[in-house]
Each structure stands twice: as C-alpha cells, then as structure tokens.
Amino acid sequence: xxxxxxxxxxxxxxxxxxxxxxxxxxxxxxxxxxxxxxxxxxxxxxxxxxxxxxxxxxxxxxxxxxxxxxxxxxxxxxxxxxxxxxxxxxxxxxxxxxxxxxxxxxxxxxxxxxxxxxxxxxxxxxxxxxxxxxxxxxxxxxxxxxxxxxxxxxxxxxxxxxxxxxxxxxxxxxxxxxxxxxxxxxxxxxxxxxxxxxxxxxxxxxxxxxxxxxxxxxxxxxxxxxxxxxxxxxxxxxxxxxxxxxxxxxxxxxxxxxxxxxxxxxxxxxxxxxxxxxxxxxxxxxxxxxxxxxxxxxxxxxxxxxxxxxxxxxxxxxxxxxxxxxxxxxxxxxxxxxxxxxxxxxxxxxxxxxxxxxxxxxxxxxxxxxxxxxxxxxxxxxxxxxxxxxxxxxxxxxxxxxxxxxxxxxxxxxxxx
Amino acid sequence: xxxxxxxxxxxxxxxxxxxxxxxxxxxxxxxxxxxxxxxxxxxxxxxxxxxxxxxxxxxxxxxxxxxxxxxxxxxxxxxxxxxxxxxxxxxxxxxxxxxxxxxxxxxxxxxxxxxxxxxxxxxxxxxxxxxxxxxxxxxxxxxxxxxxxxxxxxxxxxxxxxxxxxxxxxxxxxxxxxxxxxxxxxxxxxxxxxxxxxxxxxxxxxxxxxxxxxxxxxxxxxxxxxxxxxxxxxxxxxxxxxxxxxxxxxxxxxxxxxxxxxxxxxxxxxxxxxxxxxxxxxxxxxxxxxxxxxxxxxxxxxxxxxxxxxxxxxxxxxxxxxxxxxxxxxxxxxxxxxxxxxxxxxxxxxxxxxxxxxxxxxxxxxxxxxxxxxxxxxxxxxxxxxxxxxxxxxxxxxxxxxxxxxxxxxxxxxxxxxxxxxxxxxxxxxxxxxxxxxxxxxxxxxxxxxxxxxxxxxxxxxxxxxxxxxxxxxxxxxxxxxxxxxxxxxxxxxxxxxxxxxxxxxxxxxxxxxxxxxxxxxxxxxxxxxxxxxxxxxxxxxxxxxxx
Lengths: 417, 548
Fold this sequence. Notes:
The structure holds 2 protein chains of 2 kinds. Chain A is an alpha+beta fold. Chain A has helices spanning 7-15, 22-27, 31-40, 51-64, 66-71, 75-85, 93-101, 113-127, 142-154, 161-166, 172-184, 200-208, 210-224, 230-239, 253-256, 260-268, 287-294, 322-331, 346-351, 357-365, 380-383, 386-397, 403-416; strands at 128-129, 188-190, 196-198, 246-248, 272-277, 280-285, 307-308, 313-317, 333-334, 372-376.
C-alpha cells in the first residue's frame, strides 16, 4: 500500500460509515439508556417523557454545557477522550463506560461527529502552533540524498559500485538501500568490473512522475527498513492540518506516545523536523513528507525561498522541493558539498593532501548540517542540455532571476541555437 | 517576532539573507565585528568566520560567549558544536608580541602575558625554523625575553611570528615629524574610522589595523587624517599609477600641501614627507625602503599586499601600520597576511550602512543594451576599439528617451572620450560641456553655473570625480575606458554622494553597444560591482519599437 493519503479522502475513510451527529446516535438508544444519560447529566426533572423529549434535552445539555461536563471528568478519562477524538480507539474500558454514560461516546467507541468537531476545535489549538522564526537542526532527507547521488552518477563523479558504497553522501546502510532502489526501478545496473550502467531513458521517465516516484521510493525504503509509517502519518495528519504547524510533542502524547521510536527514525531521515522552544519539543512533517502524505504542495516550496544572486550563485534551502533540486543538479555545480569516494580508513584519510583539507572536513560531516545547497550556475552553459534547460531551469527560476543572470543565460542559449 | 536573518554553515561561511535584515542592518553591523566580508551581491551576503577576524574581535574585546549567543539568536539553523569550538579556540589565541629594536642584531620581544611568552618559547624551540631555534635567548622578566638575532633574520622572525598567530607591535624611536593638515570636514563615519585607529581598543591595538570601507566612501581622506594626527613620516603603498594620482589629487585639493604636493611627491620616488609607491616598485626599492625609518605605512588597496612578491612589504619596520580596502578576501585565501602583518580589523563599513546613515543615496543602476548603429564609419589609425563602439547613433536616441523620462532633473552625461562628449554637446540644447581643454578657472565657473540651476544637462569627459558638481539626479555613461571597476565606482559614487535628500533615488544609466567589446568590458565592470552590493538592471533598446 502506498503512503500517500489525500487529506480529505483520508478523513472520510477514517470516519467510515458511521458519520452521524449526536442526535442520530441518541436516536438509536433505548429510552432506558437515554434516561441513564439524562440522569448522569443531572437532568432528573422529567418523568414519562417520550424519546424525542429525552433526545432534545440531552442534546441541549451537551450543546450548552459541554465544557462543564468535560471539566468534571477525571484526567484519565479526558486523556482517553482525546485519544478517541484524534482517531485512536485503544482506550480504557472504564473510560469508555463513563463517556458512554454521559452520551458522548457510542457503540463501537464512536464519537458523534458534531461533538468531535467541537472537541477538535477546542483542543487542536492547544496542541499546535506556528513559529515565524526558529533555529533548526538540519537533516538532509534520504530522498534528497538519492537526488544528489543520481546527479553524481549522471555527471560521472561516481562511476562504479565501490565509489557508490564509499561516498560520503550517507551511511553505508543507506547507500545500499539507495543503490538497491535505483536497481529496482532499473535506473542503474551493474556492468562489468563493477561499473555503474546508467539508463538515461528510464531516468528521464522517472523524473516526470514526481509524487508517484516519491511515494514509490519511501515505500521501498521503509519496507526495506521494516518500518510501517502509515499509522504515524495518519496520526500526525489528524493534528497537523497545515504544513507550517508544529505539534507540541508532550501535549500530543495521548496520540503520539506509541510512535516515539518511529518519530525518532523519521527525524533522523529528515522526514520529521524537530525544534526545541522553551524546553518543549515541537515536531512537524517536513515539506517533503507533507507532500508525500497529503499530495499538497507545501508553502515552504515557494520559489521565493530560493535565492539567485547576480553573482551567479543559487541558494536552495535544505527543505526545498527535491525535484527542483534535481533540475539544478543536472547543470549547476554544487559548491558547498564535496563528494569523496574514498574508503573511510586511516590510510586513505592520510592520503588526502592539504589541498583537499576542506573536502576532508566535509567528508567527516557527511551531507547533513548546512541550511543551503549552493550551486554555481555561471558555467552552466558548458553542460547545458538545451531542451531540458529551456523547459525546466529557466521556467522555474525566471521570477527570481536577476537581470545580469538572465542576460548571460539568454546569450548562451542564443549562441547554442 | 524577530526574523532570523543569518545561516551558519559548517564550512564557517555565514550567509545573511538580505530580505530578512532589519531596517538598520544591526545584525550585519554586529557580524562585521568578528567575521570577514566576502561579498555582498543582492539577495545574500557572504561572510566567513576566520581566525583573523575572530582574532580582530578578540582585540576589540569581544568574548566567545557573546559571539555564540549572537549567532544562535539570529541563525536559522542550530550552530554546530564544531563552529562553537572553532570560535572558542581562535578567540583564545590572541597573542601580541612587542618588538623593540635594541641594536642591529638585538631585538626585545615583549608579550602582554606570561602564557604568550611560554607559547612563543615552545614555538621557537620546537618549530621548524632551524635558524631561529639557534638564536640566543635570555629571559629578562616574566613578560620579556631577549632574542639575539642577526639583523638579516628579523624578517624571518617576523614571518615566523605572523605564521605562528602572533600579532606584532613594533617599537621604533626617532621618527621624523611631518606637518600635514587636512582642510576639509570629514563625515562622522570617517572620523569614527580615524579614531578607531588612533585610540585603538583599550590600548591593545593603537595605531595598527585594517579599515574596510566601500569604494567611493573616502578611504584616502581617512588615511590623510590619520597622517595629520600621527605627524610621522609616511609610506603609502598603492596598486597602480591611477591610485597614486588619486592620493596626489586628494593631497593637492584637501591638505595644506596644496600645489606643493606635485613638486614634493613624485611617482615611485621616496621623499621625506609622504612617499607614494606602487607595490611593484616597492619590491624593487626594498633595500632603500628598509633603510628608512618609517612612522606610518599605509597599505592602500590592501588586498594586493599578500601577493607572492609583495608580501615581504608587510614586514617593513614601522611604528604604525594601516591597511585600507573594501573587500580584503582573496581567491588564494591569503588575506590573513594583511591582518597578521598590519593588525586586526578595527573599522568596517558597508555600502548599505552608508545609505542608511543618509551619507549616500540609493542608486538604481541600469545597463541599456543597444544594437550597433554607428554615426562615424571612418577608420582612423590607432583609434581604440572602445571608442569606435561608443560612436553609436542609437545612444543618442536612448538619451532622448531618458531625457523625456527625467524631464525635471539634473542630468550629467559622462564619456571617457572627448569626441563622444562633443557629439552629445552638439545635439543637446543648452548643455554645458566640460572637458580637459577647459582651463580650471573656466571649469569652476561652468560647474557653478550648472549647480545654480534646478534643471540642466552637463557633459563631462574624464573629469567628473574632480568637479564639485552638486545635486545630480541622473548620470548617463556614454563610453568606457576599459574594465576598470574604479571608473564605475567613481561615476556611481558621484551620484550617490551628490544629492543627499532623504529617500531620494538616483538613476545611473550605462549605454552599451550590444555584441561588441564595449559590452564585454561593461559586463566585467557590472559583475564586479554587484559583489559590492550594487544592483544592475538590464534593458534592451529595440530597433523595431524604438523603446527601452
């Protein structure tokens, strides 16, 4: 099964066939059950009333005094009610009984959707917030690492499997997975003497199918690691409704506590971002993961977040659309990352001479840590594939392209024509 | 909530996102105290945390904790431990050694603390400098050691100290006193720069250090004011003859030396007041220069100092040393030699700060590319290619469009070539022409005539920087002498500083013949200018629609 779930479709699926309001739920109860609820709600002032009267009174009571009722239930029950509200049905039986007696929860641990909407409206703002400005611990996503790896293979920097397995883009285990994925979709194949054979036609087709490709990759990657992320993504999406929202981890414990291991894995994979503010940890789906699970383009991928200077340098933030980065990667030269393809042994480390000191420092750092991927696009003309260039690079960056750059690149195109 | 405007990368580069900067550029000002400016193109400004700028910040009294806290408060990413450790270590390694020349073969090395002396002894004894290791050393006090060295080794001692992260302070007595008086008022920022140099920081860096200011902001004047204050025999090292002329002009126009300047100060010749020598000539005259007793050495265009042949000039003895420049970063990363040989960065100012302070106005620079359409096809012997390409009839058409656009403005047209200036003078009604042929008194009268008008057109060739033209709204460049960034700075700089009404915008148009050597030359100029923060738009003049 794929990971991607459109937000609206997913909500309908989760709600299932029991999308009923409080009154509809009450209507399915017997007079005795309704009487019990009315008494629990301290409405004991009517006898021999009909079912309609009970439903009316209970509905009014839960409409007008819902928060008084909630205030009077104990912490554990409230915790379980929140779990139910945010789609986790694994609650204590005792809580279920109390909530059923109050006419809040019904057969099958179902919440009437009008009540549920009220609860979510009330509780969600306490769980999430938006920060204008925050410092992040930067992790390059595994998919972005795949994109960078493809670029190095395409440019011939990585020529054989030995280079691939010993490069500094990721840990060896991840590199194995990336290579296996590329083989599984037939973008690369092992040639003679361990050489990498790149199938450019398949790569071209692969590039055209952005979201499918992303879904397919993470499906492969998580399966390979034995991870089931669907439930976590579903749980996160019940709370995070906007790609800019951050979830306060402690407050969301009632739904996320069982996913803590998965959250930590996704943090290290760059799929979940984490920040600390006033000693509280906040998390959110990375823009890439947001796109993966909802299909919606995150605001972080707005082209305004990329900076193209008149000095021919392109600054792409670490969280940006990996497919756009793929376009740049084909032509531009990445200047703040250095690929090293040596084995990480003492002998080889010593072999790196003084001139490569900077590269060696990067070698130790791997590919995490830097906010921007910086490309020098001045020499782009040398490597330019005119058709691709015209169709992609120019279109994507035109709105942020300074005149000096536009003029230079246009001249280069006209010289090629 | 405040915007985080910087990004700190693990390779020690710091990027400032221009869009997120606060209005008064406080973040960038603070950053300048401990990081080296690499470039400031529109959109993102690049700085580098290097040992020399951190060492400079230590000299200014900045603490490690303050720097880390500033970076973390303003950074979009969490500053890595690697960066924090680097800063901490470099700030610690701020060592100053005073050199007292006792006799021809004796020098006293005095340190500001006991730890520095220990460090120095370890480096001398166990370092790679075999000759130095043989030097006879006597410890005379807890803070002083005497190293007895052959005189020829003084340079290698200095090189050793510089390479070992020691800042040198030289004690030199009996320097000839000179009297130079600057007779113009300085801007506040220029006074700040002079004071930073003269007073130093808590006495730690008096009279030695680097002043970095953008082109056209009056570095030469700052240098002259420092000469006036110190009253010592001075050597000024400059890049080329053009820079020599610039110093000489300033001495003539703005000091008490006035007309005497030209007879006293000759190109690449030593004299007893202020000698102005190019870096290249100074290498040839090195023995002669070394034998003189200098009070002050000014390294103008200081990025030239670390060149393989000129770095030896950094070791010349002098009581005071000043480096002047705009961006000191070198491609070969040897800019550290400037700091080590001269002193820490003591004053830094950016172009944007000048605009914010209202010292210069913001200028919109536009290059207008125009198809070739010559008014003169006559081939003349030895006529420069750039002059040929400048004779473009379409430039006249563009001028007319610009004149219409800036109807009620004061416009100055500049041309390197007199022929072009004359052509425009002929076609523009009521325009004033000032070229090299006009004598100085007439020139002054013409400038006054132009200054007295609210609207007018002035055409000048070559001389613009020397004319006291005020309130220019628009400058239109008609031709170019070559790839000279300097000519471009002077033209735009004139516009930036001639009209200081608040919120006023200036317009600079460069008319360039398309697909010619003129276009190539201008491309180099504009691409250099953008690194300093100038913004260039490009517009095209079309033959078909006759518009821009």
